[in-house]
Amino acid sequence: MPVRIPDNLPAAGVLESENIFVMSESRAANQDIRPMRVLILNLMPNKIETETQLLRLLGNTPLQVDVDLLRIHDKVSKHTSIDHMNTFYRNFDDVKANNYDGLIITGAPLGQIDFEDVSYWDHIKEIIDWSQQHVTSVLFLCWAAHAGLFHLYDLQRKLMDTKRSGVFNHQRTQTPHPLLRGFDDEFFAPHSRFAEMDIEQLRAHPDLEILAESDVAGAYLVISKNSHNLFVIGHPEYQKNTLKAEYLRDIDQGLAPDIPVNYFRNNDPEQDPIARWHSHGSLLVSNWLNYYVYQLTPYDLSDMSAMTPWESDM
User: Fold this and answer.
1) pTM exceeding 0.85
2) 249 is in an annotated binding site
3) DSSP-assigned beta bridge partners for residue 186
4) Residue from 142, 146, 213, 246 carrying the catalytic annotation
5) Active site residue 237
6) Catalytic residues per the record (predicted)?
7) Which CATH code for domain 3-159+175-238+276-306?
């Protein structure tokens, strides 16, 4: 089934070239179906690249998904045109009266800044608080996962001396679990961040459960026990060359970055990267949409009280 996106969104051409089923708003208007409504708060600098990455994953599921794109402020973006932002993005005031089946909050290049020093931290808190009443399930990615764990559960991240960048091996810690259905016992996922969570604090928290972790990179998948919030402390949406682009950008900025771990063939930046995580990323988003959005959300989104926590003995 397709992901429905605005007419003329740049991601449409890329996704169609990959045989991912996307549908324009004008075509979808003729279909009699209750699609899933997903809001994406895009905090990444290159909006179009991140849109395409997330829509690629959402479009690879059997559900029809309507997507709204949300921006955090009206400031001019250095990496995305004003026309694109004004055409395809909405302000929070435009959507806060709505309910959504799902919300995705992306990462952000703010890994070395205290949350309270982020210029739009109050807006982030407002949207997270709103999501607890207006969204069936919230998917937090990387920086947003740290921000959500801090704001909702008062868990502080720890800044690292060097950036953790690369593709790391992870193990599932819960068997069975709906979100992990179809996962191998071990799988790879990319990381690109300057901070980490204390895994023992996560394990000890009564309202949280760790579903997957890495011996090197720490906790990766953390879910609230009421099934409402999923924290993905990594970047399953990244494409093959995303870490390479970040690595070269950091070199150009004179930052002398470490070579991303387990990423370039033979650990040689002159050789091609190896993508080891695409199947996992697709399965993760598909399971989230199925088990924590589609199967929990009320048919009538105006009645969020009809939502019930996931219960399964799988």
Assistant:
1) yes
2) yes
3) 171
4) 142
5) yes
6) 142, 235, 237
7) 3.40.50.880
